[in-house]
């Protein structure tokens, strides 16, 4: 039995992203309904089924044919967003890890505090408990096409309904764990969408160690997301999809972008393979002469507040200014 086969289901789900965010938005915090232009109607295949405002935080829930349930999205606006009607802002898409949801970064990581006074819109969408920011090869739980939802529907909807820079130099993507992988994947596959990419303890190599990360993705998605279906196919993988999604096989797609990588130094079921994959990725970037910023720090699999703050500041420095 291989190392990947020997990992039990609990470990695989842990590696997909850590403990779930369990706190919920309180109705008592509702300050009023959000009303960006056109938000109440249909657009890009999305229909709003719920929405509210919590200070700077705008909450939405959507109906979409790409997802069998109604995913949530938080949109965090700058402090001065409503004081003008002409200023446009850069956007950071911030992707959660496995067994988490769209509330992760404001409930656990103080993204509201970290962006106070900064002219940046932060979009935090659902990505499924083990969706891996993919359209799965098989699903027995209805559609779970997270990639199509994010790239074909949500991004155009955000640009149509908020004052964004709807262009390459106006967008960044970052994420934690499974979301860190999603950020790296989306940046490579959709080259013209994001000028900055960041991965906080996110896998960067799918095939190393006997395809360990592909096995994690398949096992966690089968158990927590797809009712026995898989992201990449089992027992045989869809090799074309693996290659298309694998950051270490898409090195040239990261040229001329800001790249920010963080991982921990602890030996841990989550961080040990993540660190090995990030080191492989960094080595290939260096060989190709592609600049990148990286940090290896004490601890294991969690978002480091100082690194998230550094990331936010780096995103603002790289993108078009508000």
Automatic annotation (TrEMBL):
Record keyword Metal-binding present: no
Reaction(s) this enzyme catalyzes, per UniProt: 2 alpha,alpha'-trehalose 6-mycolate = alpha,alpha'-trehalose 6,6'-bismycolate + alpha,alpha-trehalose; an acyl-CoA + a 1,2-diacyl-sn-glycerol = a triacyl-sn-glycerol + CoA
Listed EC numbers: 2.3.1.122, 2.3.1.20
One Gene Ontology term of the molecular function aspect: diacylglycerol O-acyltransferase activity
Enzyme class: transferase
Keywords: Acyltransferase, Signal, Transferase
Family annotation (InterPro entries): AB_hydrolase_fold (IPR029058), Esterase-like (IPR000801), Mycobacterial_A85_antigen (IPR050583), TAT_signal (IPR006311)
Keyword Transferase: yes
The name this protein goes by in its record: Acyl-CoA:diacylglycerol acyltransferase
Signal peptide span: 1-39
Similarity-based family: Belongs to the mycobacterial A85 antigen family.
